[in-house]
Amino acid sequence: MDFVQDPGNAQFRTEVREFIRTNLPRVYPEAGSPAWSLRFHDRDSVRLWTRALDQRGWAVPHWPSQWGGLGLSPVRRHILSEELATAGCPHPDAISVDFVGPVIYTFGTPEQKRRYLPRIRAADDFWCQGFSEANAGSDVMQLRTTAVRQGEHFIVNGRKLWTTNAHFADMMFALVRVELPGQRRQQGLSFLLINMRSPGVSVRPIHTIDGRHRLNEVVLDGVRVPVENLVGEPGKGWVYARMILANERTVIADVRSARLQLEQVRGLMQDCREQTARLAGMEAARHQLARLEIELDALEVLELRALHEPPGEQTVPSMLGPILKVRASELRQRISELAVDVLGDRGVEALPDPEPNPLPTEADPLACLSACYVTAGYLFQRSATIAGGTSEIQRNIIAAVGFGV
Ligand SMILES: Cc1cc2nc3c(=O)[nH]c(=O)nc-3n(C[C@H](O)[C@H](O)[C@H](O)COP(=O)(O)OP(=O)(O)OC[C@H]3O[C@@H](n4cnc5c(N)ncnc54)[C@H](O)[C@@H]3O)c2cc1C
């Protein structure tokens, strides 16, 4: 495989760097402070940066130009994400921009495109994904949420589980079972857009082991959804969902954040060098760091291969997405384990305050913030091999697609 850099790509990277250099301090005056890289980006800060990127078409760079994108190639999109992540910029909301946006511009009605795409692009609306249910995670075909047509509405009843960001989302894209008048309930799943402010929607928080609130249970109790909110054909929701799952795996793989994590461990090890008592253990940690670095280099080559793959039929699962997802999520877990090992006792001390205030004060040195952040990250990384499809399911896909078993 020939990864020789196209000079246009190098020029593009320079443009992105220049954009960040001039715009980041304008949007966030605190950017560049030592605590910046530890900051947790909330909805408002994501919105501000998404709007700044939108001035260049970079909020939705892969979208077609008709909807405000640039149809950017996967390689340039990768360069953009890499530079933004390195500078610690918030990422535009992936669930909205990378998951539902492409489904709407590919399969939606002209009215759905007009209504939702500009609002996603401007970060006016944030979306959540309502696929999983209590007994329908890996095997989503078991889901039980129903949408029964009554006149110009569907009446939706069911419970969605593990719904990321439902507590602040404006809209949900959900997989449901549709029942049309005079017909039996659809065997296939349908793809429905639900306004989260509709009467009958209630959101219950699920706090994760790191103490943060990202996940929720969403109860849908007689929610009236206009029939025009159905995407594509009833019973074909799985076709549209597959497009999302393929994107989700690549987004969740997030090889770049594994690299940043690794750099953080290197920094922690340098900090710990002064503590001579722990030097003996450091030798083993250094070996471990070197091994992880080599595996990460190999993973980055795999990612480049995926980026250079000729574009195929988007709804057909490829093998590279699942391989990247398994390798990157497992590697991120191992890097976070090493980070906590390096922290030693400080890692445990950090536990009572899983949500550190990212602004440093005289009384709260950065080292403590960093310990909280590292320990919380380690705990949340346990979910990396579950979210977006478990490692076992990814391995099943690899076996089926790659080896025909
Ligand atoms: C942090 C996080 C965020 C999430 N966000 C969302 C979200 O926003 N929206 C959403 O819809 N869902 C979300 N999910 C849910 C996620 O998609 C599911 O947790 C995942 O698909 C697994 O389903 P499950 O939890 O029901 O586990 P199960 O499917 O019950 O699996 C339990 C165990 O059995 C194994 N297993 C199951 N089937 C097989 C098989 N055929 N072969 C081998 N092993 C198998 C699994 O690998 C796993 O180890 C999120 C999950 C997490 C952890």
Characteristic terms for this protein:
Butyryl-CoA Dehydrogenase, subunit A, domain 3, alpha+beta, 405 residues, Butyryl-CoA Dehydrogenase, subunit A, domain 2, single chain, eight-stranded mixed β-sheet, 12 helices
Structural account:
The protein has 405 residues and is α+β, with helices and mostly antiparallel strands. The chain folds into 3 domains: 8-92, Butyryl-Coa Dehydrogenase, subunit A, domain 1, CATH 1.10.540; 127-236, Beta Barrel (Butyryl-CoA Dehydrogenase, subunit A, domain 2), CATH 2.40.110.10; 254-402, Butyryl-CoA Dehydrogenase, subunit A, domain 3. 48% of the residues lie in helices and 14% in strands. The protein has helices at 7-27, 43-54, 74-86, 94-107, 110-121, 237-253, 255-272, 279-308, 320-343, 345-349, 366-381, 391-403, and strands at 127-130, 146-150, 153-160, 171-179, 190-195, 201-207, 213-226, 230-231. Strands 1, 2, 3, 4, 5, 6, 7 and 8 form an 8-stranded mixed beta sheet that branches. A hairpin with a 5-residue loop joins β6 and β7 (213-226). The two termini are 27 Å apart. The site of flavin-adenine dinucleotide has 19 residues, from β1 and α12.
